[in-house]
């Protein structure tokens, strides 16, 4: 194995694996830290953790354990993947995990770049934009777990990290990889360890990747990985894929603006059932009952708890944030387990927490990367007769659920 990657959730990890696979690397996504060595032909391993919203000390411990396994596989470079909307709080996990990985690897200049132009995420003047809107005005300020209230990445990560934060501006990035590498060296000489690097185009990401050739640690969204495979002699290719026939089921726990639009689009012409957090918590509905409905509905049935921010807040105020989130995740996990036992072969999930809960419930240890459904969302083979799609809340076109079912196999 050449490149070792640690993702802080399952959807982001599949996004990263997709990027690396398209650029020609043989990639396997692992659910949690593997207990066995990787296959000899794996060039990039992506260890998926469910660490984005947990206690920072626990996130650090899990990430260092993942790092130890990846080092044992022979990796020479490491990547810490977090969301392209930098999902965290001022007391969040990105800074502590980046600090711990840097210390373990002796990395003294660490790129910070969540840019992903293909999905509208760009970094300019150290600020993160979603399309033409600052992050903290994009809807992410209403995220139920990690509300983002400041678009200045330098300031946000400074709340979390013990290191000084540097910056490489867009004009330097436009000058190419040599200029970027020189700027990283200059920031290091000025005492900066974590260095926010601007990027607004895929070309920028390719140049940043080239500049990172000799760095031990890179952090960011999946976009920054565009330029890394070339450093290992890889070139773009189309992944092999075998479609999977059989029943499909879509599950959505994401409350993002994009997902709510996708839910509304799908519900207009496909079977859809909304679940409220209250009825789940109060056990007024069961996974078995919902599965019976889905199996009878046919087509691509969608079960969702994707509510508007004011509805989410009222549920959190009534039951508590942790209780509400755990109840929904557990329900979807149980539903997915029952569904596969009943013969469902295609499962589509929306939302990082929902996707993580489903992957863990189904005990999916390795995911093989297939074709891209929408930017950042690949089809994944999880077993001989099971394929899945794990969508980050903010990703995908409006017809995502229907498209995903078709790409997965029908």
Features:
alpha/beta, globular, 15-stranded mixed β-sheet, 410 residues, Rossmann fold, 3-stranded antiparallel β-sheet, Molybdenum Cofactor Biosythetic Enzyme, Chain A, single chain
CATH architecture name of the largest domain: 3-Layer(aba) Sandwich
Quaternary structure of the protein: single chain
In CATH terms, the superfamily of the largest domain is Putative sugar-binding, N-terminal domain
Task: Classify the fold: give the CATH topology of the largest domain.
Answer: Rossmann fold
Textual characterization of the structure:
The chain is of the alpha/beta class and 410 residues long. It folds into two domains: 230 residues, 3-Layer(aba) Sandwich (Rossmann fold); 162 residues, 3-Layer(aba) Sandwich (Molybdenum Cofactor Biosythetic Enzyme, Chain A). The protein contains 14 helices and 18 strands. A 15-stranded mixed beta sheet has the order 9-10-5-11-4-1-3-2-16-17-18-15-12-14-13, sandwiched between helices. It is globular, with a radius of gyration of 20 Å.
